[in-house]
Amino acid sequence: MLELLVRQPGYAARIQAAVNPAMIETEIARRIFKTWLSLAEEDQGPSFQRLLAAFDDPSAKNLLVGIDDLSSAKPPIEAERLLHDCLADYERRRLRAEQRQALATGRSDDEFAIEAMNRLRQERSAQERKLLEQKRK
After folding, report:
1. CA dist., res. 29 & res. 67, Å (int)
2. C-alpha–C-alpha distance, residues 7 and 3, integer Å
3. What does DSSP assign to residue 74?
4. Rounded to an integer, what distance in angstroms lies between the CA atom of residue 12 and that of residue 23?
5. Residue 121 class from Cβ within 10 Å (0-12 exposed, 13-18 middle, 19+ buried)?
6. pLDDT at 125 (0 to 100)
7. Which residue among 23, 35, 58, 69 has its CA within the 20 to 30 Å range from the CA of 129?
8. Confidence of residue 17 (pLDDT cuts 50, 70, 90)
9. Distance (Å, rounded) from C-alpha 38 to C-alpha 47?
């Protein structure tokens, strides 16, 4: 996800709406993400240089530079596909966390399965609408 943030800062709103910082596994990645969100709220948006300048911590700077170097060395990819894959991964993580919490609180697997199916149905409908809109263009 950090690579996507570095390569496509214009996705700030979509990523912010879908990703809960608590779901980010490492502390350094979580700090970078939260800083990126703060910069995204400003008028100019989060450029790589502004994000890098926001950190004094050498480990955060090294990670950002490494991500930038790796992403620059890769062939261009379809940014929308990368965004979709990234958000789908976080959605799977969120659902697994919800399931663990539901099981811990005693909810039945059937209740959770019904809720998950309803969410998937809504997501699929949204994706189908988006594909139809793209075909019309």
Report:
1. 11
2. 6
3. S
4. 17
5. exposed
6. 84
7. 23
8. confident
9. 12
Task: Confirm if 86 and 1 have CB atoms less than 8 A apart.
Answer: yes
Structure tokens at 12: 């700030």
Q: Which two tokens stand for residue 95?
A: 């659902």
Pick from 91, 80, 89: which is nearest to 119 by CA?
Answer: 91
Closest by Cα among 48, 34, 62 to 6: 48
In contact, 63 and 39? CB cutoff 8 Å = no
The answer to whether 37 touches 12, Cβ cutoff 8 Å, is yes
Using a CB cutoff of 8 Å and minimum separation of 24, what contacts does 21-30 make? 23/90, 23/93, 23/94, 23/97, 28/57, 28/59, 28/60, 28/63, 29/1, 29/2, 29/63
The residue behind tokens 């502004």 is 50
Global model pTM greater than 0.70:
no
> What is the distance between the alpha carbons of residues 90 and 23, in angstroms, rounded to a whole number?
8
Q: Which residues contact 21 (CB under 8 A, 6 or more apart)?
A: 30, 33, 34, 37
Q: Are 90 and 23 in contact (CB under 8 A)?
A: yes
